[in-house]
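Reviewers of the previous submission asked for a worked example of the structure-prediction workflow described in the proposal, so we include one complete record here. The input consisted solely of the amino acid sequence. No template or homolog information was supplied to the procedure at any stage.
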Amino acid sequence: MESVLSALVPVFLTIALGIGLKRTLLPEEAHWIGLERLTYYVLFPALIVVNIARADLTGVAVMEVGSALIGSIVLLAAVFTVLRRHLCRMFGMLGPAYTSFFQGSLRWNTYIALAVSGSLAGPAGLAVAAVAIAVLIPLLNIMSVAVLTRHAGNGDVSARGLLVQLARNPFIWSCLVGAAINLLHLPVPSILITFCDVLGRASLALGLLVVGAGLRLGDLHRPRPESLAAAALKLLVLPTIAVTIGLALGLHGVDLLIVSVASSVPSAPNGYVLARQMGGDAPLLAEMLTLQTLFAAFTMPVVIAVVTHL
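From that input alone, the workflow returned the following structure tokens.
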């Protein structure tokens, strides 16, 4: 537990610094919107490309790790799809609110996952995390865009409209570029890789600061039931499913550890940007992100500690 906490505490301290900077040094919303756009379109895509392109997958159970993560996401997404009308009635949600519930329950915070994976397991952990990035980011972005296009009521529901939204997503392109470099051994100048690495390192710290600045602590005096339900699903149910599938597939050691990390992190702040762009219930998703980030400081150490003792 001590090693888990030593890996997590710096991450959450950086998020707390973001909260403090928003209230003191950088109080204007325009500052953070600019940093958010810079991270979304430049820094984070560079981080994705470098991590996937340089990942040494020797000894990583790629298929099993990918199957555990994809399987848990697809299973919960299928449940949400089948029970959508029931969930909407139970929580009094309209279409835009349902899209935020969907994203808040399934997406993952890659910044936190990478920071914790590197702290817990070093290069081996980052290699497994690269597999998580390669499989989860395209899957979750495709699913999120599809659900928002269908239920948010602010977009073209045709196949062409869906493809246009996906083509605009920088994370999907970044995953494709990184995977092509890694799998096809494409010759990329070392200067360019170093340049992207510098941008990616900036993304990790800046992304955590932006997460902290985006938290709305004032909204937590009476959290909505759907926000609490999404927190339980994301922080407890999803990692339980992912680890169970991983164990069934024979995962152990670092592979299983990073599966637990990737599945137990709070939802992604990038989902909030997507919700604002496509007509989702962005304030509801902001509440979910705030709750989950605070709760994850307590749930993640428990999940990771349990997995390390399996």
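The mean pLDDT is 89. We consider this example representative of the routine output the project will generate in years two and three.
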